[in-house]
Amino acid sequence: MAAKVAIVSDSASDIPPQLAAELGITIVPVIVSFNEESFKVGEEISMDEFWKRLTAPGAPFPKTAAPSAAAFTAAYDKAFAGGAAEIVSIHVASKLSATYRSAEMAAAAHPQSKNIHLVDTATASAAEGLLVKRAQRAAAAGKGAAEIVADLRGAIPRTHVIFFLDTLDYLKAGGRISPARAAIGGLLSVKPIIDIIDGEVVTLDKPRTSAKARERFMQIVGESAVEELTILHSEAPDVEQFRTDLVTRFPAIGALKPGIVRAGAAIGPHTGPKGLGVALIRAS
Length: 284
Prior knowledge:
Elements: E1 5-10, H1 17-23, E2 25-28, E3 31-34, E4 37-40, H2 47-54, E5 63-65, H3 69-81, E6 86-91, H4 99-109, E7 116-120, H5 125-140, H6 145-155, E8 159-164, H7 169-173, H8 179-187, E9 193-197, E10 200-205, H9 210-221, E11 226-234, H10 239-249, H11 251-254, E12 260-262, H12 268-271, E13 275-282
Parallel strand pairs: 1-2, 1-6, 6-7, 11-12
Antiparallel strand pairs: 3-4, 3-5, 8-9, 8-13, 9-10, 11-13
């Protein structure tokens, strides 16, 4: 029997397509373009292919685009046709992408508009994914849309994606920092630690080496209790060791048995390869 509340999201959440299908979450794909070639993320380009293209020598910097309103209309139609009474549609930060706006347009024009509830997560990648999976668990437990939305809105201010970067080159290529700042940072071997706060990328600290970045990162993660957490990386070869180090240092996080998520087209073009971090929801 179909869940009374259907959960819809977008591929900026970095929830693998197979897992989304298993959980009954509808994922509307964002679009990534390399020069003239455009692909629906998760449908027409896999995570492996995305990273292969991004890191190829001389590769063009990819551009991402929001799904169309029509793509959301189709997703909503399918959910209602499948027996859903209500939809909670949960999306990447509206300050980072026009995805939320497309969903908003589709919802406003839909015949069942009053039964579609939109949530701007104010974040992206695995942090968005944590919120989407949280909503799915609530829906599976029989919670109504209003209760699910209220819970998400309470969790969003406590949700973070804390990441430290191996290189500034990709932030420079994407126009997030100036070439001068990137050059200076490169000379100083800066490994910035970033978060997404209220939909904006914020630098938390700028340690000078990878070892110092990792230690400072651990301090930031351990500042207060954590309710949910997953490891996030952008093709980092030492991600398993990183998870071991984290759960050894923080047994309470180890008890959560954190999984590992690969960053995709939402933040991957800006982080570049070898980035490490976590998505987490702080305890109340």
